[in-house]
Design brief:
The protein is an all-alpha fold and 194 residues long. Strands 1-2 form a two-stranded antiparallel ribbon. Helix 1 packs across helix 3, helix 1 packs across helix 7 and helix 3 crosses helix 5. The longest helix is centred in the middle third of the chain and has 25 residues. The protein is globular.
């Protein structure tokens, strides 16, 4: 049996998402959270998310991508609050590159936990509830984002068809060198061949 998700009106969520983001940005450890995500460059390897961004460079893309992740998290938190903790409803679709930055954000577990404790805001990210590659122009997330902050950054927020096209291109480039299934599997000898 399938469940129909019920989410509040985008304009209402947008207002609360803006408030949430302002509260989090005002926390005394927000700068640490931001800079920690920027330093998550040598430990973080993404074979699919960042690879979909044309000429992605962690040195120059982290600064503009971090706010996109924070906005997406604010939307999720607002939906979570307004649906009495419905994690499935709160796990709104996001663009894959934005989701990758959300993973870097979630990796700052300790500081993120302290911010949640101080602000009372619950951040929501559940891999088992995600709809990877399902974000698209005009969808619920897009409507909320646009109502809260205006136009999205098209460098990171590209739609479903473009995502599928870019994924196919990336996979085709990876496979001949032994990176299979988008980095979930590697050819024998990949790490040991000289």
């Amino acid at each position: 049996m399938s469940t129909t998700l019920v989410r509040p009106a985008p304009e209402i969520v947008a207002r609360r998402a803006r408030e949430i983001l302002m509260i989090v940005e005002g926390d005394r450890e927000y700068d640490r959270l931001r800079t920690a995500c920027a330093k998550y460059d040598e430990d973080w390897t993404s074979f699919m998310g960042y690879a979909l961004v044309d000429a992605f460079d962690i040195a120059t893309d982290t600064e503009p991508l971090f706010p996109e992740a924070m906005r997406a998290m604010a939307i999720k938190s607002a939906v979570y609050e307004m649906t009495d903790g419905d994690e499935e409803a709160a796990e709104v679709p996001v663009a894959i590159p934005v989701d990758e930055m959300i993973h870097a954000l979630a990796a700052q577990f300790t500081v993120l936990s302290r911010i949640q404790d101080r602000t009372g805001i619950k951040f929501v990210h559940a891999t088992d509830r995600e709809a990877i590659g399902e974000w698209d122009h005009g969808d619920y997330t897009h409507q909320v984002y646009r109502a809260a902050w205006g136009p999205m950054n098209d460098r990171y927020w590209f739609g479903k068809a473009e995502t599928a096209k870019r994924r196919a291109v990336v996979m085709a480039k990876y496979e001949p060198v032994g990176i299979l299934d988008g980095g979930r599997r590697f050819a024998p000898g990949f790490a040991t061949a000289s």
